[in-house]
């Protein structure tokens, strides 16, 4: 099965190890992974801020880049969801609308693809820690994916998964929201961190680098000793493999 990896802006700039881990997991499951040249920002920052003209260019570039791929997989629920916004965005342009629909239909978030397309729930991972999961807003509300990450984590040997109280609450990142509405975003992050601490988890796991950057950055500034990891890093932890210390890798560039 051929898979094209949508790397995302944050992935390329700050989370290269996550991209590596996601690629290795997919290859271990029998996928042939390529990274198409020409991919750039999906246009989500402009789209969410209401700048339609500034969204069109990046959106068309991404459609051109990925429209010949068999499957498009993205280690970010937020960015994957943006591909599903393209058909409505180009609703008044028949040609681009049709091309956007074809791209959207074959675009999946990383865990969503593994569970719903590959029909795999146990990837053979082993990770000994008490873990809690942050479910991002775009992953659950826009993609409508609520179960794939739980199913995969539940099969990781040695992992104790603890439910995060009020996990449906936004962490406060929200793209440019965390910059424009900094005081509110900070309070939302603090509330999220309080719930994380209630679980007594050693590790916070998520499927969106943006959320992890935001929460992890705030925890660093508050001196919290909780690791922050992307789910791809957990799923690529194999028996007998020396663990890499990803402690608070997220958040190095967050404004909080």
Describe, in plain words, how this protein is organized in 3D.
InterPro entries: Cys_rich_dom. This protein has helices spanning 9-14, 16-28, 44-48, 52-66, 77-83, 86-89, 94-105, 110-116, 137-142, 148-154, 177-180, 182-198, 209-222, 231-235; strands spanning 2-5, 32-34, 71-74, 107-109, 126-134, 157-162, 203-206, 227-230. The protein has 256 residues and is of the alpha/beta class. The strands form two sheets. It has a four-stranded parallel beta sheet with strand order 2-1-3-4, sandwiched between helices. A four-stranded parallel beta sheet has the order 6-5-7-8, with helices on both faces. The chain is built from 14 helices and eight strands.
Summarize the structure.
One of its GO terms (cellular component) is cytosol. The protein is built from 14 helices and 8 strands. With 256 residues, it is α/β, with parallel strands linked by helices.
Write the layout of secondary structure elements.
Elements: E1 2-5, H1 9-14, H2 16-28, E2 32-34, H3 44-48, H4 52-66, E3 71-74, H5 77-83, H6 86-89, H7 94-105, E4 107-109, H8 110-116, E5 126-134, H9 137-142, H10 148-154, E6 157-162, H11 177-180, H12 182-198, E7 203-206, H13 209-222, E8 227-230, H14 231-235
Parallel strand pairs: 1-2, 1-3, 3-4, 5-6, 5-7, 7-8
Helix pairs in contact: 8-10, 12-13
Principal-axes geometry comes out as globular
CATH architecture of the largest domain: 3-Layer(aba) Sandwich
Q: Rg, please?
A: 18 Å
Q: What's the helix count?
A: 14
